[in-house]
User: What shape does this take?
Amino acid sequence: MSAEKLAYNWNFDDQAAGPSINPMENATAANAAMQQVLVNSTGPAPAPPLPSGSQVPLPVGIEINGTLMRDAEIRELTGADEEKLSKVSRSSVRFFDTLLKLGVVSLGNEPVTPALLKGLYVADRDALMLAIRIATFGPQLELVGVSCPTCRELVDFTVDLSTVELRGLPAGETRVELRDGRWAYLRFPTGEDQEHILAAVDATSAETNTALLERCVTYIESPAAGIRVPGSADVARRLGIADRRTILMYLADHAPGPQLMSLSTEHEACGEEVPLPLTVADIFLDL
Assistant: This one.
């Protein structure tokens, strides 16, 4: 596994921060890069139980007809599913949508629909894809040729995906204070947001950041003036760069869902810990 990963740059508006990804040319990399950041977090949050069999707990949940559904049913992918997936390019934004449509049976007691899948938080979509992967291939994931950062030896590791932590939403209000005393109230992205953010052709990292802020900033509050301004692309563009970074880093540091990016293991030869950051795309290399 290569130590270099494409990174979704949603915190510095810096064109030199790393390679850009054209989602129309390589949507799998774009999707993986975005998820890489969404699950890269150290902030505290309650941990939902791990999945058991075909029943999967949702880290966030979705409201359907006034009821919050906190679990789902998934199934193993079959040869017929593999044929359908083979017709969808891995460089297409449709790949993971198709995988979810095939592998998710129901959300709570409601049959799954494409609209419900798009309405799920990215955290829940990732949790479902992780469970589908385990149901289809088992919990063991072989990583070949990982470079130990201490001794530089190339080592093969086996990761038990059933032990990956599932993080829930952070406690309290999802908001951050801006430099001028205003407050930005936020929500975490959904599948529909993800599709919108990744659909922009040839967007720069700064433009992609704006698209994310447009969707995830619900409003900006000025307590002294008693004013609330709904979030929009224009509001995102008017924010100072430092405030944009503050908001985006909060979303990254408190992101719910499977904590694939925090995986690590000890290299017995040198006794040092080897980080094994993964994305949802990494765990489906078998397909």
About this structure: The CA atoms of residues 123 and 257 lie 4 Å apart. The first helix runs from residue 27 to 38. Confidence is low (pLDDT under 50) at residues 1-25, 37-44. Residues 1-137+167-263 form one domain.
